[in-house]
Design a protein that fits this description.
The protein is 11% helix and 36% strand. By secondary structure, it is mainly beta. Strands 1, 2, 4, 8, 9 and 12 form a 6-stranded antiparallel β-sheet that branches.
């Protein structure tokens, strides 16, 4: 038994990849072979540059920025994993960067973002520091990859399948028939922003980023003998992304998930006008706000299953409902949201603190220290049963009493964590939800 390291070039190889220049998808194929893929070894490697215009000039105004908590992870809009042989989609994570904007603060602390992730993913829990160490280090001069200042990165791809510990058989007969991993890049207007909120005045309306010298590296295991038989199965957690807008004091969101083993659901928010807007950070995870920039406080939240309260058989009345002068978010809402991302009892590292979880800010929270506002609402379902909740035939829902009293649509990004089973036999793949 031995391990091998693979270095895989994109099948649609280009000198660089850029959403703005019409090259927004990177596709990597881990070919079918008599080996086992170690999913946690998969890394996306390349170089990153950000420019103020199409001439690839580096910004000298000290205003062009990107989300400091996410770094390079903010460029991933969708992550699609499928079988090379059968083309069956195994996992499709939509709004991946919005998922990461809650996932990383919930599972990583400042030391991660400054140390390991700062080195590999270009993160820092400070917008100013991240701009200095990443944006201003771009090569410029219209030449790709020629400067010593290119930002190199090597990131893992958080997803259900690739975060699992079980090896994935790549065999055509007794495995998934190879894996195809596609990374869809986000628009530059969703990744970059002007910290002063005036991209036009700073000459940043044509700002964009690109990645180049990209490859995928991973580790495979060559067993003495592949598993006998012509098929098998693999259980894994899958993350699914949904989108909805809310614009009333009684926000009611419902989805037919079609999933039988839902472990948890969480959501984050941002004013819809901030999305794909170079004047605002599209990755911010804010408490819903009114058009004036004031916080639209949450008074009550109820999670439902088929219209009935579930898994909590009571309404969560927040501290604000009892005392409107409260400057801290409700601890029960915050605790439940964190528990939906990762079991609360296992949380060992978190960026969440009283500094970035209070309500002492307005408009966009850019001035909030420790990476910006961290806010999400969620609930875990695997605490009421080992396999989670069955939403195959009943709709999932959440009802919120919230202070959206004016016309200011707020975008809600909802993420569902569900256990799924991957069946494979003779080159064919089936996903049981």
């Amino acid at each position: 038994m031995s391990n091998r390291f693979l270095e895989i070039q994109p099948t649609n190889s280009n000198a660089s990849f850029s959403y703005n220049e019409g090259r927004p998808i990177l596709t990597f194929q881990i070919s079918e072979q008599e080996a086992m893929l170690l999913p946690r070894s998969v890394r996306f490697v390349g170089q990153f540059n950000a420019y103020k215009n199409q001439d690839r000039d580096v910004d000298t105004t000290n205003r062009l920025s990107m989300d400091s908590r996410l770094g390079v992870w903010s460029i991933i809009d969708q992550l699609v994993i499928s079988s090379v042989r059968s083309k069956q989609t195994i996992e499709h994570l939509r709004h991946a960067n919005r998922f990461y904007s809650t996932y990383f603060p919930s599972t990583s602390d400042e030391k991660h973002l400054i140390g390991a992730y700062g080195e590999t993913g270009l993160t820092l829990p400070s917008t100013d520091a991240q701009r200095t160490s990443v944006i201003l280090e771009s090569s410029g001069s219209g030449t790709i990859g020629s400067s010593a200042n290119n930002n190199e990165f090597c990131i893992h791809l958080p997803s259900g399948l690739l975060s699992g510990t079980g090896a994935i058989p790549l065999s055509a007969q007794s495995g998934v028939g190879g894996l195809e991993i596609s990374i869809h890049l986000s628009p530059s207007s969703a990744v970059l922003f002007d910290k002063s909120g005036d991209a036009s005045g700073a000459g940043l309306l044509n700002a964009f980023y690109e990645v180049f010298n990209c490859k995928l590296i991973c580790e495979v295991n060559d067993p003495v003998a592949m598993p006998s038989g012509t098929g098998g199965q693999l259980e894994y957690n899958s993350f699914s992304g949904y989108y909805q807008t809310i614009n009333s004091t009684n926000a009611d969101i419902n989805f037919s998930l079609g999933l039988s083993r839902v472990k948890g659901v969480f959501m984050n928010f941002i004013p819809s006008s901030y999305l794909n807007n170079l004047n605002q950070n599209s990755m911010a995870t804010l408490i819903p706000t009114r058009a004036t920039g004031e916080i639209a406080d949450l008074s009550q939240v109820v999670f439902t299953k088929g219209g009935m309260r579930y898994p909590l058989d009571y309404n969560i009345d927040t501290a604000y409902k009892q005392d409107t002068s409260q400057k801290q978010v409700d601890p029960q809402v915050y605790r439940n949201g964190l528990n939906a991302v990762v079991p609360f009892t296992t949380v060992s590292h978190s960026l969440i603190s009283p500094i970035n979880s209070n309500k002492d800010w307005t408009t966009n929270g850019n001035a909030v220290l420790e990476g910006g506002v961290n806010y999400n609402i969620g609930v875990a379902y695997d605490t009421v049963g080992s396999t989670g909740a069955n939403f195959m035939n009943e709709a999932w829902g959440v009802q919120m009493d919230i202070g959206l009293t004016d016309n200011n649509p707020v975008s809600a990004f909802i993420f569902v964590n569900a256990k799924q089973t991957l069946l494979f036999s003779a080159g064919q793949v089936q996903v049981l939800q």
